[in-house]
Amino acid sequence: MISFDQRVAVLIDTQNMYHSAKHIHGARLAFEKAVDAVAGGRQLVRVFAYVAKSKTGEEQAFFEALQSAGIELRVKDVQEFSSGEKKADWDVGMAVDAVRLAEKVDAIVLMTGDGDFVPLVQYLQGKGVLVEVAAFAESTNAQLKVVCDSFFDLSTEGRAFLISPKHGHAVKELPEAKLPHLPGKGRDSKTRRVKVTF
Q1: Burial of 166 (0-12, 13-18, 19+ CB in 10 A)
Q2: How far, in Å, are 61, 105, 107 from residue 73 at the CA level?
Q3: Does the predicted model carry a pTM greater than 0.85?
Q4: Strands 7-13 vs 150-153: parallel, antiparallel or unpaired
Q5: What gap in Å lies between CA 41 and CA 159, rounded to an integer?
Q6: Second CATH level (architecture) for the domain 7-193
Q7: Cα angle 71, 114, 125; round to 5
Q8: What is the distance between the alpha carbons of residues 194 and 184, in angstroms, rounded to a whole number?
Q9: Nearest to 108 by CA among 97, 119, 116
Q10: Taking the CB of residue 153, how many other CB atoms lie within 10 A of it?
Q11: What count of other Cβ atoms lies within 10 Å of the Cβ of residue 147?
Q12: CA-to-CA separations, 38 to 11, 17, 77, 92, 137, in angstroms, rounded
């Protein structure tokens, strides 16, 4: 059950959210609005976005937009292998932060559809933490939806947070649009930010 007295942290799997919004809806996700909605007026103690930095630095404007929205960045360099494959996996980093935050919050929102987080959800619940998932239902692992305490579907409940790249406003219909490459329930109450250290 959600209470306005709860202290909540939001951990954003940025690549997962960015690419899901792009491939499912042809749009971008307004991260700040989505975070406020999933926080639902509760005390927001930390918000982390896990991002990958390329050698070209093309994503710098995106990073600055996240930071100006009050979202803290966890940055990792993209690894490039001789095969041409690129990798910047943040699963372990997100899990470690979630475990470290568990004693300081009542609820953790994982903004991801990745099924690799199922064991983390179960571990946190065993520590008495509510674990909520906010993601696009179409790209969210079925087991992750089942094990979490609540699921916020960004494809339905979060439609107001999808931005059409052509028009720069919320998506009303599903547009077919190209995007530049970049690596709870909503309430009317204002989210209160209270930073904790760990």
Answers
A1: exposed
A2: 13, 19, 20
A3: no
A4: unpaired
A5: 19
A6: 3-Layer(aba) Sandwich (3.40)
A7: 80
A8: 19
A9: 97
A10: 16
A11: 19
A12: 11, 14, 28, 23, 15
Largest CA distance in the chain: 51
Judge contact between 97 and 11, C-beta under 8 A: yes
- Kindly list the distances between the CA atom of residue 143 and the CA atoms of 69, 71, 109, 114, 135, in Å, as whole numbers in the listed order: 31, 28, 16, 10, 13
CA distance linking residue 20 with residue 27, whole number of Å: 9
Amino acid at 103: E
| Nearest CA among 47, 85, 88, 41 for reference residue 182 | 88
Tokens 């899990």 correspond to 95
pLDDT digits (tens, 9 = 90+) for 13-38: 999 999 999 999 999 999 999 999 99
Sign for the CA dihedral angle at 126, 132, 135, 140 comes to positive
Bridge partners of 77? 53
Question: What is the number of residues in the chain?
Answer: 198
Structure tokens at 152: 């916020």
The pLDDT, as a whole number, for residue 164 is: 77
**H/E element, 12:** strand 7-13
Per-residue pLDDT of 95-153, as tens digits, reads 999 999 999 999 999 999 999 999 999 999 999 999 999 999 999 999 999 999 999 99
Distance CA 10, CA 48 (A): 6
